[in-house]
Amino acid sequence: MSEPRTKDHLTIIGGGLAGSEAAWQAAERGIPVALYEMRPVRSTPAHRTDRLAELVCSNSLGSDLPDRAMGVLKAELRALHSLILSAADETAVPAGGALAVGRDAFAQQVTERIEAHPLIEVRRQHVDELPPHGVTIIATGPLTSEPLAKAIASLTGQEQLHFYDAMAPIVSGESIDMGRAFRASRYDHGDGDYINCPMTEAEYDAFVQALLSAERIPLRDFERADKRFFEACLPVEVIAERGHKALAFGPLRPVGLTDPRTGRRPYAVVQLRQDNLAATLYNLVGFQTNLRWSEQARVFRTIPGLEGVEFVRFGQMHRNTYIHSPSALEPTMAFRGREGLYFAGQITGTEGYVGSTASGYVAGVNAARRLRGQAPVVFPPTTMVGALCRYVTAPQPDFQPMKANLGLLPPLDHRVRSKRERHRLLAERALADLGRFVQDAGGL
């Protein structure tokens, strides 16, 4: 790996969501950035392109509603002029109350904007050790290569923690039988943004039975030894093992939907979400899986409307890696054991696309401030950005990666009985406190 060219140079390892956001924020503050991305020199089990900020699981960035945690976090990042949120908004596809993007268009736009920035140099090479000096951000994500993971473990003095993430299948839209499926969003939010495959109780029973009997891809010995799934991204077959009706109360819940053929709510519903701008590809919502590909085709084609569906990408599972951030990081995303070193993204435990972006923003801003001789900033815990950073860096007995949720925010100073009203007030407080914080920090 090449040495930084000047003392004012920032090195970022990893060109995912966090690394791209960090690079953009630092460059926008006048800092030259060398952004290292190992693809296409070396790929991962989940990536399929060499684009920056490639989305490897769902194409959804979660709820965009103003009183939901993910909606609050997005609103904060928009106010902070996030590159990732800007690209997501410009490549959005219909998804009801959520923000989903055309996967390829989104990654292409981020890549083009990063590569066109005069202060960012993208270096396509694998980094197998940490730079010995200089200001550096590690944003290699949950699929950090083995050599670099070992270097990080040696630096932190920790055993790396592992959990398992899974990707849902993607199918051809024209192969879905719309004679059996119907378009609608829950509670009529959006303009029929989802394709819904309704199930009767008998069809649901048959599907669960087929799912539970399907053959899975076996884990290797060392993987079986430390297998842990991230609760927010469980394989569909694992959910089914928790009880016969677990799927009906989980990703197949039919609430807010009416089958136009019967005028009634179905017993269960499989939803498909648009995956690209051309609306030719759709992913099965909540259908992360580790079934063998032949079994995915057999079992998922028992779903009404998907009997003859064409699979563009089968689901798969991969191991994710993250550090024990509470013992290693400050809320600024700075590493406690070495000056000038920062971590960002899912490797810190800020789970999910938008959470990764948020920690990338914080690391990029603080690394730039360090190079400019300015004091670091710690976002208020009443903001979702600040609450996430506080969660992954505060002492806790059993640290697990966490997505944004309103439970991370401090309670209001007065009791509010209505849950919806309480969430609205928390969201309003977050954005108000963020505005004051930015103003007090001189605009960051």
Features:
single chain; about 450 residues; alpha/beta; FAD/NAD(P)-binding domain; Elongation Factor Tu (Ef-tu), domain 3; 2 domains; six-stranded antiparallel β-sheet; 12 helices; 16 strands; about 30% helix; globular; disordered N terminus
Tally of DSSP β-strands = 16
Spatial strand arrangement across the major sheet: 10-11-12-13-9-14
Largest sheet: 6 strands, antiparallel
Rg from Cα: 22 Å
Number of domains: 2
Please tell me what the overall shape is.
globular
List low-pLDDT spans.
1-6, 221-226
Description:
The chain has 444 residues and is α/β, with parallel strands linked by helices. The chain folds into two domains: 10-160 and 323-440, 3-Layer(bba) Sandwich (FAD/NAD(P)-binding domain); 167-319, Elongation Factor Tu (Ef-tu), domain 3 (Beta Barrel), CATH 2.40.30.260. It has twelve helices and 16 strands. The chain has helices at residues 17-28, 69-79, 83-90, 103-116, 146-156, 201-213, 221-225, 236-241, 293-300, 353-371, 384-393, 419-440; strands at residues 10-13, 33-36, 60-63, 92-93, 98-101, 120-123, 135-138, 161-167, 170-172, 182-184, 194-199, 268-274, 281-284, 311-313, 316-322, 341-343. Strands 10-11-12-13-9-14 form a six-stranded antiparallel beta sheet. Strand 12 and strand 13 form a beta hairpin. Helix 1 packs parallel to helix 10 (353-371), helix 2 (69-79) runs parallel beside helix 12 (419-440) and helix 3 (83-90) crosses helix 4 (103-116).
